[in-house]
Write a structure and sequence with these properties.
The chain is α+β, with helices and mostly antiparallel strands. Helices cover about 30% and strands about 20% of the residues. It binds flavin-adenine dinucleotide (FAD) and FE2/S2 (inorganic) cluster (2 copies).
């Protein structure tokens, strides 16, 4: 298998790399091949943010900037994009970028491991907010720095630096020039031949043909799960099929009845659409990993990966979502649509055949009178994986439960729907005594395991308690959820 050429733009110049193996990470290329050692390796698993870089891509005639973790990003995935590392921010005469100056002035610079990552997240924030004339609130700074950890000291000066950036003289990227160069790279159309080790189709037709021809290739999207198999489990793949550049799968179709989210839509964009439809999901969306992971990872990757503690599936199940699987058979496109909860057959196994890909996730939109909530229980508030996740969607009529769907994570080998508890609730009066019986039913319905995230007893107990919280919230008790508290701990 041939390794295709990778081309991207760094500091205004086109960088060309040859012979990069399919599973070589962007961080390895930066540090070992390009000698850009400003980007650091901390955890090598997407958790700490030391390796944060910023990517730029053309999006509807504008540049879209995304801070991502280079340690779990395959180098081939940045073909055709613009890249900034911490070396690229200062001007040619050495003048610091506002992201750097603000950090220095706020006494926010810390050790050489975490600081470059913080600077790059600040740069991403600068491009996405300051340059657009949007002020950076403390809450926004905290949300956007949630993927950057410092193991030793305080975050206050760094959060202050985020808010100081807008007060410094503005520095602008030459976007017209960059967009022109990106267009040149796009026209070159390199690396689309079928016999390559890293196949990155641009269209759905090309993806389905590639899947049919290479059922043995490892599919990747944002690589935020697969990157860990490579770095931590030392898996190597001879052939990789990257779905992240397929233009049809990067779209969100907004119809009166549902959102049809392409499998390659990033978690950032998918959650933005879901939150626009159901604003109560805002906190939950921000608690899915940290921003750099959400900027790379896709909704399709989360669903296809099928982890029992994956966050989006309980929510999507409760909302009645369906998935569309597609393949090419004898030159014809074949598709099937199924309820999300029926996708899974066991621990990280599903009904997808070797020639199929997940193409769309169809999420019914909010309807008047629905009461839906999702609760994530994890050891750490930010950037942590769920121990238990419970999502519920309720419709009442005349005080009776007309419809209830319940999605659960962390209690079985797959994300599941709590069918027994739904049946116990359906048609009943929505009262405390009904809910207490349903809590008992929910606790009996699953037999979770004990692991490092939580014991079986804790998971069972908390599951019922979350149903009680749902009931209390439905009765107007708002002080029991995290959204009712400000960062300072004062009720809003
Ligand atoms: C630091 C960190 C924090 C995280 N926090 C969370 C969290 O809070 N909640 C959570 O749920 N997850 C979390 N994750 C896991 C991960 O980010 C998500 O599962 C993410 O959605 C995976 O998407 P991806 O595009 O990166 O998938 P990839 O890693 O590229 O792929 C994952 C799997 O899906 C398959 N796949 C991808 N796309 C398709 C497709 N279109 N068709 C068929 N198969 C496909 C791949 O073959 C692979 O098996 C975290 C990960 C990291 C590193
Ligand atoms: S090195 Fe820690 S997130 Fe990449
Ligand atoms: S990790 Fe850098 S100062 Fe704490």
């Amino acid at each position: 298998m041939k390794n295709r050429v990778i081309q991207f733009i760094k500091r205004g110049e086109i960088v060309t790399l040859c012979n990069v193996p399919p599973t070589r990470t962007l961080l390895e290329v930066l540090r070992e091949d390009l000698n850009c050692t400003g980007t650091k390796e901390g955890c090598n698993e997407g958790d700490c943010g030391a390796c944060t870089v910023v990517l730029g891509e053309a999006d509807g005639g504008k540049l879209k900037y995304s801070a991502v973790n280079s340690c779990i990003r395959m180098a081939h995935s940045i073909d055709g994009l613009a890249l900034w590392t911490v070396e690229d921010l200062a001007a040619d005469d050495g003048t610091q970028h506002p992201a750097q100056q603000a950090l220095v002035q706020s006494h926010g610079s810390q050790c050489g491991f975490c600081t470059p990552g913080f600077v790059m997240s600040l740069f991403g924030m600068y491009q996405n907010h300051v340059v657009q004339g949007e002020p950076i609130s403390r809450e926004l700074a905290q949300a956007e720095l949630s993927g950057n950890l410092c193991r030793c000291t305080g975050y206050r000066p760094i959060l202050e630096a985020a808010q100081q950036m807008e007060k410094l003289p503005q520095v602008r990227v030459d976007e017209p020039d960059l967009l022109q160069k990106l267009e040149l790279l796009a026209q070159a159309g390199r690396g689309l031949e079928p016999d390559l080790a890293y196949i990155s189709p641009r269209t759905l037709t090309a993806l389905l043909s590639a899947r049919a021809a290479h059922p043995d290739a490892q599919i990747v999207a944002g690589c935020t799960d697969v990157g860990l198999w490579i770095n931590k489990m030392h898996k190597q793949f001879d052939k990789v099929l990257d779905v992240s550049k397929v233009k049809e799968l990067r779209l969100i179709e907004d119809t009166p009845s549902h959102l049809s989210i392409g499998a390659a839509v990033t978690l950032t964009d998918a959650f933005a659409a879901l939150v626009a439809d159901r604003p109560q999901l805002h906190t939950f969306a921000n608690r899915f990993a940290g921003l750099p992971v959400r900027n790379s990872g896709t909704l399709g990757g989360n669903v296809a990966n099928g982890s029992p503690i994956g966050d989006s599936m309980p929510l999507l199940i409760a909302l009645g979502s369906r998935v569309v699987l597609m393949s090419e058979k004898s030159g014809q496109v074949v598709q099937r649509e199924l309820p999300l909860e029926t996708l899974y057959t066991g621990y990280r196994t599903n009904v997808m055949t070797a020639d199929e890909v997940l193409a769309w996730i169809k999420v019914p939109k909010a309807v008047e009178g629905e009461w839906s909530r999702v609760y994530k229980i994890s050891k750490r508030f930010d950037d942590d994986i769920s121990a238990v996740c419970l999502a519920l969607n309720l419709h009442q009529e005349d005080g009776l439960v007309k419809h209830i769907s319940i999605g659960v994570g962390g209690v079985a080998a797959t994300p599941v729907r709590a069918l027994q508890t739904e049946a116990a609730l359906l048609g009943q009066a929505w009262t405390q005594s009904t809910v207490q019986q349903a809590m008992a039913s929910l606790r009996e319905e699953f037999q979770p395991i004990s692991d490092m995230r939580a014991s079986s007893t804790y998971r069972t107990l908390v599951l019922g308690n979350l149903l009680q919280r749902f009931w209390l919230e439905s009765q107007g008790e708002q002080q029991i959820n995290l959204e009712s508290f400000t960062l300072e701990g004062e009720p809003a």
